[in-house]
Automatic annotation (TrEMBL):
Protein's UniProt name: Glucose-6-phosphate 1-dehydrogenase
Organism this protein belongs to: Acetobacter fallax
Function: Catalyzes the oxidation of glucose 6-phosphate to 6-phosphogluconolactone.
UniProt family annotation: Belongs to the glucose-6-phosphate dehydrogenase family.
HAMAP family reported for this sequence: G6PD
Protein EC: 1.1.1.49
Keyword set includes RNA-binding: no
Active site: 259 (proton acceptor)
Ranges where the Glucose-6-phosphate dehydrogenase C-terminal domain occurs: 208-502
Glucose-6-phosphate dehydrogenase NAD-binding domain location: 30-206
Any matching Pfam family: G6PD_C
Length: 505
């Protein structure tokens, strides 16, 4: 038995609905909006890394579509520059870069205009008409339906055609339904992949493994043992070039409606019957529907919204939001904190605290599970509650804080220690970017890591009353200096319940 110590153990889940990942399949992948920042920073580097690992067949096509008048050669030059900058392994493997660029093509086309000349794209797709075909719509959401209409009008939808929609799906419940209805006229639900890159992050997926592959944790994963849950997504950057978009969205639409609610649902869900798209999303949906609705009183007491002003980060002065935006005034939040409640037996009485902000003191995305303290004291010291911290970024991993006897102190004094696991060190490999998993999952037709229509609508049902309450000033806007941890009122959300935010040292 000793000879097997330290070897990786393969766990075979019940994945009857998940396609085979062992053989790379040829495909045609059309990126609509292919000159944008997302394509250059994320999509092309993600495809390149999978190609380098021989997970993409050499006769596949990656076809960029945008309105810019470019040749394929010029587009390949831009793609090569993007790979050198954003794909970590590209500078070390010029041969792989050259071979990958042979897969890349470009078509100048307004894909939301059915009357435009689609013949160059039709010709590229006609070579292997029967193989998997994906349309990744990386444009403004207002163009989703028009693009789906145009694809259908040109008879480019086959039985193995898929469409990928970037978030956000709408700006409220009505617009989300309109997008889902419009795209759904041409694509059935099994063909629609609503992407949330948080679900591609390995640490987010590891929430499932941590809970359901380790019964020792799942048996204490409830209100009897857990005091509260914190989910934080903090950034040091400001709005940058996204200012015009961000000012119409704000942190609630941009981060909570999709990313943080998806993480919350994975933390809080019941065990699925199998690791299939249907079972997993059924359980997430139950949690989204179990969130306690936010009325005016709850919005006033259990939410905080704020906007960053000028400050200092890492010793450098940075401007406030209005200066970054180039505007005199704005009522858009760049920070929020929310106290949420999941109305299930497992989580009765356990608060879930959500927090996200720009221009914060540190960049960190993590989930903190704080366990209940010992009900009576037997030590002189009062031990800190044990915390399980799941680090989503940076330094993906987890740590469990425990109290132990201090070996250097006289008497029985306690000292906190952490059991820490860095996933990169533990698995000895490069941690893939979230889009790598997601893009290949689309090609395989695997919807486990994607969001179903009813999930989108359930999240908007919970978010929309908060948006409306803020519009009516049920919770006034506050400010916080850049480089801080947000307004003091966010601390009070937890302090009123006897808790504190877990902060980076």
């Amino acid at each position: 038995m000793a000879e097997n110590a330290g070897k990786a153990r393969t766990v075979h889940a019940a994945t009857d609905s998940r396609p085979d990942e062992s053989q790379p399949a040829s495909f045609d992948f059309v990126i609509v909006g292919a000159t944008g920042d997302l394509t250059m920073r994320k999509l092309l580097p993600a495809f390149y890394e999978r190609f380098r690992l021989k997970q993409i067949a050499a006769d596949s096509k990656i076809i960029g579509v945008a309105r810019s008048d470019l040749s394929t050669e010029t587009y390949r030059q831009r793609a090569e520059a993007a790979l050198k900058e954003f794909a970590t392994s590209a500078p070390q493997d010029e041969k792989a870069v050259r071979e990958f660029l042979e897969l890349v093509h470009y078509v100048s086309l307004d894909a939301s205009n059915t009357a435009a000349d689609w013949s160059p794209l039709e010709t590229l797709l006609a070579t292997y008409a029967a193989r998997v075909r994906v349309f990744y719509v990386a444009t403004a959401p207002k163009l989703y339906v028009a693009t789906a209409d145009a694809i259908a009008d040109h008879s480019l939808i086959t039985d193995v055609t898929r469409i990928v929609l970037e978030k956000p799906i709408g700006t409220d419940l009505a617009s989300a339904k309109a997008i889902n209805d419009g795209v759904g006229r041409h694509f059935n639900e099994e063909q629609i992949f609503r992407i949330d890159h948080y679900l591609g992050k390995q640490t987010v997926q590891n929430i499932l493994a941590l809970r359901f592959a380790n019964p020792i944790l799942e048996r204490v994963w409830n209100a009897d043992s857990i005091a509260h849950v914190q989910i934080t997504a903090a950034e040091t950057v400001g709005v940058g070039k996204r200012g015009p978009y961000y000012d119409t969205a704000g942190a609630l639409r941009d981060m909570v409606q999709n990313h943080l609610l998806q993480v919350l649902s994975l933390v809080a869900m019941e065990p699925p019957t199998a690791l299939s798209a249907m079972d997993l999303r059924d359980e997430k949906l139950k949690i989204l529907r179990a969130l306690k609705p936010m009325d005016t009183e709850a919005i006033a007491c259990d939410t905080v919204r704020a906007q960053y002003t000028a400050g200092e980060i890492d010793g450098k002065a940075v401007d406030g939001y209005l200066t970054d935006l180039g505007a005199d005034m704005s009522n858009t939040e760049t920070f929020l904190a929310i106290r949420a409640e999941v109305r299930t037996t497992r989580w009765a009485g356990v608060p879930f605290y959500l927090r996200t902000g720009k221009r914060m003191a540190h960049k960190e995305t993590e989930v903190v599970i704080e366990f209940r303290p010992q009900p009576w004291a037997i030590f002189v010291d009062s031990p800190e509650p044990s915390r399980l911290v799941l680090r989503i970024q940076p330094d993906e991993g987890m740590s469990l804080s425990l109290s132990g006897k201090d070996p250097l102190a006289e008497g029985f004094r306690l000292r906190e220690a952490s059991l820490d696991v860095s996933y990169i060190k533990a698995f000895g490999t490069r941690y893939p970017d979230s889009y790598e998993d997601l893009l290949m999952a689309v090609v395989r037709g695997d919807q486990v890591l994607f969001i179903r229509r009813d999930e989108v609508q359930a999240s908007w049902c919970w978010i929309e009353p908060i948006l409306n309450g803020w519009a009516e000033n049920a919770r006034p806007m506050e400010t916080y200096p850049a480089g801080s941890r947000g307004p003091a009122s966010s601390d009070n959300l937890l302090r009123d319940d006897g808790f504190v935010w877990k902060e980076k040292a």
